[in-house]
Amino acid sequence: MSTSVMSEPTVFIIDDDPAVARSLRWLIEAVKLKVELFTSAQTFLDTYEETTPGCMLLDVRIPGLSGLELQEQLAKRYAYHVPIIFVTGHGDVKMAVRAIQVGAFDFVEKPFRDQELLDKIQRAIIFDAEQRGKVAKQVEITELISTLSPREREVFDLVAEGMSNKAIAYTLELSSKTVEAHRAKVMEKLHAKSLADLVKLSMQLRVNTP
Amino acid sequence: MTHEIFLLSIVVLGWVVTMVVVAFMVLLLKHRELQQSIQADEITQRKITKRLQESEMRLKAIIESEPECVKLQARDGTVLEINPAGLRLLDAGSPGEIVGKPIYTVVAPDFVACYKENLQRVFAGESLVYEFKSITLKGRVRWMETHAVPLRHEGGDVYALLGITRDITEHKWAMDQARQHQLELARVARLSTMGEMATGLAHELNQPLAAIANFTRGCIRRLRSGEMTPAELIEPLEEVCEQAERAGEIMRHVRDFVRKSEPRIVPANINQIIRSVDKFIELETRQEGVQVTLILSDDLPQVKADAIMIEQVVCNLVRNAVEAMVESKSSLRHITITTKQGESDYVLVEVSDTGPGINRLVAGRIFDQFFTTKSEGVGMGLSISRSIMESHGGKLQVLPQSEGGATFTFSLRTHAVEYIGAERRASYH
Fold it and tell me: What pLDDT score was predicted for residue A5?
């Protein structure tokens, strides 16, 4: 997972008008971003690797599988996918609003200024990287925590709740010494240097596990 | 034996009767020759004459009571005989007004040539059904349908055209109504697609325009960062050209589409059109101190026109006149709109002003698209007006300069069945 965060972000362009698609590539490549073109939602779905970071420029009016339907499909198939920027024509704003409501990142209304579009793309790529970072972090934490024994896990949870060793010992009917030993082990296994680190880890775990 | 004789005599009698009937027919058709030939035998003559008279009376009675026009015509179009229904149809008070005179006095000028041709065909032996427009002795315009057959001498020579004619004006009018109704439907359908078309068009045009903007922006960014060689510009610039051409192609389609929209031509009162234009330009003209005079000829026939389109043309002409006089700061600001009978089937409309007139140098270009002498004009008014007039089968022209001011004129064809127009007009009141 963490390797994908490192790979080059790609802007996926899905537009049935080849000239418009080519012109967008030409524009976006000017700011040194990698671009991939697709003329339909289906061809995109057929080749999409969710591990590739970046963002997607999606024309709402593409024929066949529509922009909104592609968004639905992606949400169904993948736990996480690149953020979608919808490209709408004049009068399609309603559609764009609906897209945002069901999770699109942003939309641009044609005709747009190049800077406006490039800014949105940059923001989407940053957002994507952050999301991927969070996901990676969560996976890392989950992996670390899975190395704890059941008893250690109990101790970790109670420590994170702010209980003292004595209280934990009382709750778990253990000796203070044993609790201390478990706690040291937890700190070691979770690479935590302080109580604060443990609390943070615990919170991250809770945030990222709905 | 007597029985057989009886039967034989019946058969003979039957034959005799048949022969007599046939003889009557022949005798009837060759009435005049028979009269000459029977002079020889005086005794028979009297009998035959009597019978002939009887038969002729019978035929006359039939023909005279026939509700449709029955007439005989000579090769040169002279009316030989006509029944009372025919006289009524042509608004003739007595046979003398029609019989012995050429039929062309009651055929509309447009149809004379065609009528003559049909006549020749019938005299060449054909039986025909033809339609034509007739102008009765009282000047009413009516559509007629004639079933014409040749009448022959014994030798086979055609000596007359027997025509049975009926008035199909009502029928034709109903057909026209149906056609107009269809045109109206088509127009409504077109109007409702106009909105859709405009949206589609906007989208269509946005595509190449967006592509052009993206390609050029991409070029500008690369040129600014100094990382682009001139050779690398060629490809995106070619793309830009292609997209500009694509946009042009779309516009061409639109123009074709618009040009195809046909006027909705119906009988219209030209004076009424002028008056309604006068009403909605009143505010404008008054504000600019322009006096508008209407010289509208009474009793003009109805014209074939799309009233809305003609209003647009007149409106354009008046606005042009107002603007010309305002821009040139003319002290005398006067517009005259005239309607009058033009050549044969045409009504003329003239719009003249007291402005600076049209400069000879530009006179040849004023009807061109995007040609304008006005500071804020787009140069479409006269161009559109001219194509409207062309779609009406007429012409919009500027009259040769007389003394100051400009005069534009256009003509409209008159509607064929005027009196129907009058009836319909009357029914509104």
Answer: 44
Q: Tell me the per-residue pLDDT of B104-133, one tens digit each, with 9 for 90 and over.
A: 989 988 888 889 988 999 999 888 888 898
Note whether B146 and B162 are within 8 A (CB). no
* Mean pLDDT of all residues in A183-192: 89
Amino acid at A9: P
Whether residue B182 is predicted with pLDDT greater than 90 in this model: the reply is: no
With a cut of 60, say whether residue B156 has pLDDT above it: yes
Residue B73 one-letter amino acid: Q
Question: How far, CA to CA in Å, does B258 sit from each of A71, A100, B129, B264?
Answer: 40, 39, 40, 14
Given a cut of 80, whether residue B420 has pLDDT beyond it is no
The beta-carbon contacts of B393-398 under 8 Å, at least 24 apart in sequence, are B393/B304, B394/B346, B396/B313, B396/B367, B398/B358, B398/B363, B398/B366
Q: Where are the beta strands (DSSP E) in B197-273?
A: 266-268
With CA atoms as reference, the chain A residue closest to B202 would be: A90
Query: Is the CB of residue B277 less than 8 Å from the CB of residue B293?
Result: no
What does chain B come to in residues? 429
pTM: 0.43
Query: Residue A23 and residue B203: Cβ atoms within 8 Å?
Result: no
Whether A166 shows a pLDDT value over 80: the answer reads: yes
Structure confidence by residue, pLDDT tens digits, A58-110? 988 787 888 888 999 998 998 889 999 998 876 677 888 888 888 899 999 88
Test B212 with A89 for CB contact under 8 angstroms: no
Cβ-count burial of B135 within 10 angstroms (0-12 exposed, 13-18 middle, 19+ buried)?
A: middle
pLDDT of residue B235: 92
Phi–psi pair at B97, nearest 5 degrees: -75, -20
- CA-based nearest residue in chain B for residue A32: B222
Q: Which of B214, B224, B238 to mutate to test the interface with A (most CBs of A within 10 A)?
A: B214
Identify all chain A residues contacting B211, using CB atoms and an 8 Å cutoff.
Answer: 17, 19-20, 22-23
Angle at the Cα of B398 (from B396 to B403), degrees rounded to 5? 155
Here the tokens at position B183 are 């045109």
Whether omega for the bond prior to residue A18 falls within 30 degrees of 0, making it cis, is: no
Q: Measured between alpha carbons, how far is B47 from B58 in angstroms, rounded to an integer?
A: 17
**List of chain B residues whose C-beta atoms are within 8 Å of the C-beta of residue A91:** 199
Chain A residues whose CB is inside 8 A of the B242 CB are 19
**Contact, B407 vs B351, CB < 8 A?**
yes
Picking from B52, B18, B21, the residue whose alpha carbon sits closest to that of residue B35 is B52
**Closest alpha carbon to A84 in A47, A127, A43:** A127
Residue-range domains of chain A with CATH: 10-133 (3.40.50.2300), 147-207 (1.10.10.10)
Residue B309 contacts residue B392 (beta carbons within 8 Å): yes
**Contact status, residue A62 vs residue A45, Cβ threshold 8 Å:** no
**Beta pairing partners, A36:** A12
* Residues in contact with B27: Cβ distance below 8 Å, sequence separation at least 6, in sequence order: B34, B48, B52, B55
Q: What amino acid is encoded at B4 in this protein? A: E
Q: Give the residue from B217, B228, B239 with the most A CB atoms within 10 Å of its CB, the best one to mutate.
A: B217
Placement of tokens 């991927």 in the chain: A132
Cα-based angle B57, B60, B63 (whole degrees, multiple of 5): 155
Tokens coding B378: 């787009």
Among residues B222, B224, B251, the alpha carbon closest in space to that of B235 is found at B222
